[in-house]
Amino acid sequence: MKRRQTTAILIASTMMLTLIGCGKTSEGETPVSADNEISVSESSGSSDTTALADSTTFDSSDDSFIYNGNKISILNDAALTLGYLGDYETDASSTGGNYKNYLFDGGDIRFDTSVVDGNESPVYLYIHTPEVKTSRNVGVGSNQDEIIASYGDPDKKTDDGILFSFEYHFDTYNITFRFDEQNKESVDMVMYTNNYYLSKTAFS
Q: Which residues are within 8 A (CB) of 58 and not within 5 positions of it... i.e. 6 or more apart?
């Protein structure tokens, strides 16, 4: 009986040593512990945040586009949008009156605001560069077929000999695609309009 107990103890000890040995993955490498898992998770979280800021994988809606890693929306507060857009070109911008316009990156982006009830508020956002796309991946340089494939038939079409554009109406904002006036095929500007604040300006 004693001999059987000794044998059982030896077998159990051997199994324990085998299990402990499995904790190492290779020579000189420490096994993954709960502490290691937490530190890996924390460090990868910070790098994921950096990667996200440089990507266009944001949950974008039709009121917004991605610019310099930031989600820019015509529905955002003006101060938030200005913060995301960064330094504007002081010489090319007009910010002295109640109606202001800010130009960025040589005019690639323009942001117009108006003082409403004492607060600077968003009115228009313009895109003049093919590098920035709408949330449906069209923009400057896109043709009529591409715009219609992405947004459907326009809610309003303007063709008055000077301006040729497609306009799409949403609940609180509009998106306008202006086409090159010569060939009417290629978009040369995208404009987002905040309908509420536009109705409060002196130009409405």
A: 52, 64, 66, 71
What the block records as the tokens of 36 is 């290691």
What residues does each domain of the chain span?
A: 1-204
What pTM value is reported for the model? 0.71
Q: How far apart are CA 177 and CA 116, in angstroms?
A: 26
The pLDDT of residue 11: 44
Structure-block tokens of residue 80: 């938030």
| Parallel, antiparallel or unpaired: strands 119-127 and 187-194 | antiparallel
* Residues 85/102, Cβ–Cβ less than 8 Å: yes
Structure tokens at 74: 């015509």
By three-state DSSP, how is residue 109 classified? strand
pLDDT at 32: 35
The residues facing 156 across adjacent strands are 167
